[in-house]
């Protein structure tokens, strides 16, 4: 099924967007878990009003790549930040280490400047820590360009804005220079969605199958396109 507008009538009057995003995050994590090797797992973290994401964790050492992604749309020099001084509190029993994340943008993320700042800061922190990231924005009721704001935060010129998009980011060191590989795809209501690469810290790369998981979510929720 092609991308629907979940945030405006008639569909917004028939279904709750947050229920759909909740299920989509679950099926995205299921799709990633089916491909992740031993020692990794993905889990959905849904906190409405704050964030919706899918994270991939590593329990052991990284393994070689198993999926060949397309070439990035661009590779840009970025400012990855300087030294960090902080206090970390960890359980002595150990715990998972974040290796990659998929963020499904919610209306609250694009609302006030403070909300956009919080979202961009979190994503920038992921990339500065070498964590691969995918951002998916299908929110039609607000027009803020979080991808553009993130690129500006990282010290590079933002591309022309797109109201809906899916973007993958891979922070990588090339010859001692911090570089960000970017796969940026504009999304359109009524058109299918792409498969994007999720680069995990350590070099493993997985496909994030947006269309397949979206189709599954629509099927499980008995969602059909609104009548014209």
Overview of the molecule:
This protein is α+β, with helices and mostly antiparallel strands. The protein has one domain (11-65, 74-79, 97-220). The protein is built from 4 helices and 9 strands, in the order H-E-E-E-E-H-E-H-E-E-E-E-H. It has helices spanning 17-35, 113-128, 146-153, 210-220; strands at residues 40-47, 51-58, 74-77, 97-104, 132-137, 165-174, 177-186, 195-199, 205-209. It has a 7-stranded mixed β-sheet with strand order 1-2-4-5-6-7-3, sandwiched between helices. Strands 8-9 form a two-stranded antiparallel ribbon. Helix 1 crosses helix 4 and helix 2 (113-128) crosses helix 3. It is globular, with a radius of gyration of 17 Å. The two termini are 15 Å apart. Mean pLDDT is 83; it is low at 81-94.
Give the low-confidence spans. Answer: 81-94
Output the number of helix runs: 4
Strand order of the largest sheet: 1-2-4-5-6-7-3
Rg is 17 Å
Please tell me what the overall shape is. Answer: globular
Biggest sheet record = 7 strands, mixed
> Which series of helices and strands comes N to C?
HEEEEHEHEEEEH
Between the first and last Cα atoms, what is the distance in angstroms? 15 Å
Number of E-state strands: 9
- Provide the number of structural domains: 1
Chain-averaged pLDDT: 83
Bin the helical content.
Answer: 10-25%
The helix/strand class is alpha+beta
How much strand? 25-35%
């Amino acid at each position: 099924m092609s991308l629907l507008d979940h945030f405006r009538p008639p569909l917004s009057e028939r279904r709750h967007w947050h229920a759909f995003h909740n299920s989509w995050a679950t099926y995205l994590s299921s799709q990633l878990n089916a491909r992740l090797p031993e020692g990794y797992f993905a889990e959905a973290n849904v906190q409405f009003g704050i964030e919706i994401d899918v994270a991939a964790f590593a329990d052991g050492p990284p393994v070689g790549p198993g999926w060949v992604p397309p070439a990035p749309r661009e590779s840009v020099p970025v400012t990855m930040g300087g030294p960090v001084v902080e206090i970390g509190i960890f359980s002595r029993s150990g715990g998972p280490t974040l290796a990659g994340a998929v963020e499904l943008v919610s209306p609250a993320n694009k609302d006030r400047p403070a909300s956009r700042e919080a979202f961009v800061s979190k994503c920038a922190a992921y990339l500065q820590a070498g964590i691969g990231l995918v951002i998916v924005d299908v929110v039609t009721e607000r027009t803020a360009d979080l991808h553009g704001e993130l690129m500006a935060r990282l010290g590079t010129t933002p591309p022309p804005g797109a109201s809906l998009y899916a973007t993958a980011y891979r922070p990588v060191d090339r010859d001692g220079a911090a570089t960000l590989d970017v796969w940026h795809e504009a999304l359109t209501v009524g058109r299918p969605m792409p498969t994007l690469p999720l680069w995990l810290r350590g070099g493993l790369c997985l496909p994030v199958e947006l269309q397949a998981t979206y189709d599954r979510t629509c099927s499980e929720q008995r969602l059909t396109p609104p009548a014209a």
